[in-house]
Each structure stands twice: as structure tokens, then as C-alpha cells.
Recover the amino acids of this structure.
């Protein structure tokens, strides 16, 4: 700080991401969760832009080819990098939440990550897993279909997708059976209630 230059939030959040990743790889999911949250707090002000896939836009890394003199290009690059990091942190925190079986929170973090990058494969996959655990089969199947389309070699996603499809078919069959039983119920009132004639 002696130079008077302000430290970018990304520069503070990135070491926390690495620390959280280490906790995660050690199986210390609560510590990972808390550390991802701390990193996300540093990036709180960054919101998705109106442009689709802003966080995943390709191009040169922030600040590449720039002498560090500041200006609008540096600021835009910093913001893009912050959004990219925020997306990664949300998806990583969702992974920790999956391990902790916090399904609704997984869905929340993945949905937020997908606001930044609608084609974020890991966020889509993790949200699909969480929907499946909550037995929200239609949404699980939708997310898992996308995940499998993006990574056809993911055997776990394929297996989860097959289960979600099977459960959707089972739900449809049960709904048809219920409707059939109601229609064939001999105690079911089939006549319309009579109307009183008002004179």
C-alpha cells in the first residue's frame, strides 16, 4: 500500500479461492464453504451484465498488453475478471454445498453462477444433481440433459439423467393411474349439483 495503488477485489479474492480449494480437496467442506463465502463477499458488487456469457467471454486476459497505466480498458478487464472469478466461486461453493447435502443452497448458487455464464457446465451439472436429490425430476432432467450434451463422457451425469427420466415416466404413470381410479370410482358423484331457481 506504500505506492498508494488500490488493491483490486480479484487480487484479494483469488488467494481465498485457492485456500478454499485446498480445504475442499482435503474433505474439509465447512471450511471450504466459509472461505468461498469470504471470497464472494469481496466480489459482492459485481453483477451479471446484460450481455449473455459475459463471464465466459473469450479474449486476452485482463490487462494483457497493457502497461498498467490504468484507464477504461483496465477497469473493464478487472470487471470481466471479477465476474469470471465470482462465477467460479459460486460453482465451487455449490460443490461444497453438494458434499454437505444442502440441496436448496446448491440450486441457489448454481442459478446465480448461471446468471453470469448461462453455459457454465459445472453449475448446470451440480444444479441438476441437487434438483434430483429434491426429486424435482423435470428440472433435474433439463439440467442434466444440458450437462450430458456438453460433456457426453460424464458417466455420472448420464446415470443421473437416466434416473431422472425414469422418475419422470413413473410420475406420469402414477398420475394416469390416479386419474383412471378417480374416473372409475363408483362412489364418485357424476351428476351436476342442482341449481335453485330464483323467482
Amino acid at each position: 500500500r506504500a505506492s498508494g495503488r488500490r488493491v483490486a477485489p480479484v487480487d484479494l479474492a483469488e488467494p481465498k479461492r485457492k485456500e478454499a480449494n485446498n480445504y475442499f480437496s482435503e474433505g474439509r467442506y465447512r471450511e471450504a464453504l466459509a472461505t468461498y463465502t469470504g471470497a464472494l463477499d469481496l466480489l459482492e458488487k459485481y453483477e451479471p451484465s446484460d450481455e449473455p456469457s459475459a463471464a465466459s467471454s473469450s479474449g486476452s486476459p485482463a490487462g494483457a498488453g497493457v502497461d498498467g497505466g490504468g484507464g477504461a480498458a483496465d477497469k473493464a478487464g478487472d470487471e470481466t475478471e471479477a465476474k469470471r472469478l465470482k462465477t467460479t466461486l459460486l460453482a465451487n461453493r455449490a460443490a461444497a454445498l453438494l458434499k454437505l447435502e444442502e440441496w436448496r443452497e446448491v440450486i441457489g448458487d448454481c442459478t446465480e453462477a448461471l446468471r453470469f455464464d448461462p453455459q457454465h457446465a459445472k453449475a448446470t451439472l451440480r444444479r441438476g444433481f441437487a434438483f434430483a436429490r429434491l426429486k424435482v425430476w423435470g428440472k433435474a432432467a433439463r439440467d442434466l440433459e444440458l450437462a450430458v450434451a456438453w460433456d457426453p463422457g460424464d458417466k455420472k451425469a448420464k446415470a443421473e439423467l437416466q434416473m431422472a427420466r425414469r422418475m419422470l415416466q413413473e410420475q406420469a404413470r402414477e398420475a394416469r393411474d390416479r386419474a383412471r381410479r378417480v374416473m372409475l370410482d363408483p362412489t364418485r358423484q357424476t351428476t351436476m349439483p342442482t341449481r335453485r331457481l330464483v323467482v
In short: The radius of gyration is 25 Å. The chain has a mean pLDDT of 84.
